[in-house]
Amino acid sequence: MKFLRTSVLFLFLLSLTTTVNAQGGGKKTSALSRFFKKTPWTFTLGGHVVDDDGRPFSNLFNVAKTWNFLPYPTRLAIDGYYKKGWSFQSEFSFTQYKTNKLINGDDITSTYTFFSADAHVKYDLNELFGDTHWFDPYVAAGYGYNMRTVAKNPNSASANAGLGFNIWVYQNLGFNAQTIAKFSMIEGTSNYLHHSVGIVYRFEYGMGNRPGKLGKRYTFLKTIK
Description:
single chain, alpha+beta, Porin, eight-stranded antiparallel β-barrel, 5 helices
């Protein structure tokens, strides 16, 4: 039985790496290589805020008491575009809960660690409203793993839902803002809000743009009255 499982795994990996003739040319590419080259990938690097005071939908802007963040980039997100406005996102975030912050209804007296890893499905709202070129709003939903060392159950899972937008300065360079509500799936851990901002860069493989080269610059500031 072990041999059968090993053989199936080997054949699967072999199918990904076997080269085939590309259409219209003599170059050889693997299935995995074609997947990465034809998929537009978007990378976001920035900061984030965790609002984990135990009351996620009230007292939203008490920055001094309930917002937890660090002054350097602490979030990385990777998006792979599928089609018709749908994309898939993985993101990883880290921060610290500092002394005297309000966490789950209590003032903490020590520093604690926060880490999360999330997987979301995103839908581009421009598919409904029409393409604005420079403004790219979306909704997102998925699941996450959360490590909060301050909690009774430090490791928990969550169901996530939220929204965000990209503002493109160039075709492939812009700014991102996102807010995700995280609903705990483990008893004894609180729901919380996760806000983030960052710089976003899109590698448009297979769509005519070379990676590493800035595309057309949008002049949206001139169109706003």
